[in-house]
Write a structure and sequence with these properties.
14% strand
Length: 300
């Protein structure tokens, strides 16, 4: 079985708890990942809202050093677009580009450190634009410049956590495909962190991807009732919109409260088996589990 995951907070957990990404208490640890025939994990460093720029930079550099050391130790290769990737790969990403701090030159810093995808905001506003908790705010003038510079430097734009206005501003001023790395359907669950059908269709039209999130609050308006059945419903809904080449997974492991049936990487087989039981053919299941995300990142 193959698995490609667009988002987890495992690296942040490892750095802040002074351990490494093989620790078994981590939901997306390397030991579990290497049980797959092929595994590629986007390793995000989350930059919390409200911390000082010096703390942002310190956290970011610690995460880079941790990931570089762990990748060498546990034999993970950095994903590249040439197509000669190994069975076990990682992609270094950043969640909350507040680290730019209004300075466009910091995009070069992200590039130098190997960042391949950047979530523009977290839930609050930053110098780029409005997050999910600031729905009235879109991209700032600086944010519009950043969109162009991200694309110029080969950094994929991630609109998870963005406000609706920020989303449509990105749609207006971007020229390349972008993604929602860990967002579900707002049609099924009304949480502001989810995306609308219109937004999904625009991402699909641009040949971007959307990662299904396992967090209870984003799956069911009654979080206590959330289960793997809801994960499957979100997949089916996006597929009904023509998302065969768009739907992926963005688990949010180690950064959320996942449903019990998908509480860590060891339980991903539950998804694979459930999709087959629903009658989806092996080819489509493999696209959702791995190939859609692989094909997307291979274009950058």
């Amino acid at each position: 079985m193959q698995y490609f995951d667009l988002h987890c907070d495992t690296l942040y957990e490892a750095v802040t708890k002074k351990t490494d990404i093989s620790n078994l208490f981590l939901e997306a640890n390397v030991s579990s990942g290497k049980k797959f025939d092929k595994w590629c994990q986007c390793m995000a460093i989350w930059i919390p809202d409200g911390i000082r720029q010096s703390a942002r930079l310190s956290l970011f550099k610690k995460a880079y050093n941790q990931l570089k050391t762990d990748a060498e130790r546990f034999r993970l290769k950095q994903f590249n677009s040439i197509g000669n990737n190994d069975n076990y790969n990682y992609i270094f990403t950043i969640e909350n580009a507040s680290i730019l701090d209004g300075n466009i030159d910091n995009i070069k810093l992200l590039t130098e450190y190997g960042i391949k995808m950047a979530t523009l905001t977290w839930n609050d506003k930053n110098s780029i634009g409005g997050g999910a908790d600031t729905q009235e705010l879109g991209l700032s003038d600086f944010g519009r410049i950043c969109v162009k510079e991200f694309e110029k430097n080969g950094i994929i734009i991630d609109i998870s956590h963005a406000s609706d206005k920020t989303f449509f501003d990105v749609l207006e001023c971007s020229s390349l495909p972008f993604c929602a790395s860990h967002s579900n359907s707002r049609f099924l669950c009304s949480h502001r962190r989810n995306i609308t059908d219109e937004q999904f269709l625009e991402i699909a039209r641009r040949k971007g991807v959307v990662g299904i999130n396992f967090h209870k609050d984003f799956l069911n308006d009654n979080r206590e009732r959330a289960s793997i059945t809801d994960v499957l419903k979100h997949i089916e809904h996006f597929l009904s919109l023509g998302g065969e080449d768009t739907v992926c997974f963005g688990s949010d492991f180690d950064g959320a409260d996942p449903v019990d049936e998908l509480s860590n990487l060891d339980k991903i087989s539950n998804l694979y088996e459930s999709l087959l039981k629903l009658g989806y053919n092996e080819q489509l299941v493999q696209k959702i589990m791995y190939n859609n995300a692989y094909n997307f990142f291979s274009r950058f």
